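Need a sequence for this fold. Nothing fancy.
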């Protein structure tokens, strides 16, 4: 199953206001467009426009409410091995063998 973000934001650059309005007109064709904003900016090279677009995609309520739950880790019956560490850094394992007769 493809994963798609529920909310997406895009920002585009335009040299002129006409280019910015064309970007907005193209975005308005998408039914998921929720808002747009054209910002006029200035720097030492001149004027440019930033177009901010926000999209919200619908997700059926049933899918969101019936999300899979986290599975619990199975508990292990393993008790481990007893060991001891000597002063010189070596390790001794205290293994007891049980005879099943």
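Here you go.
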């Amino acid at each position: 199953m493809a994963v798609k973000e529920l909310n997406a934001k895009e920002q585009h650059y335009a040299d002129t206001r006409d280019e910015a309005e064309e970007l907005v007109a193209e975005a308005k064709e998408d039914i998921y467009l929720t808002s747009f904003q054209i910002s006029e900016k200035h720097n030492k090279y001149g004027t440019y426009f930033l177009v901010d677009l926000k999209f919200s995609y619908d997700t059926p309520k049933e899918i969101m409410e019936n999300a899979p739950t986290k599975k619990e880790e199975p508990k292990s019956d393993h008790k481990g091995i007893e060991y001891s560490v000597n002063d010189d850094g070596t390790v001794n394992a205290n293994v007891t063998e049980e005879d099943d007769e």
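For context: The chain has a mean pLDDT of 81.
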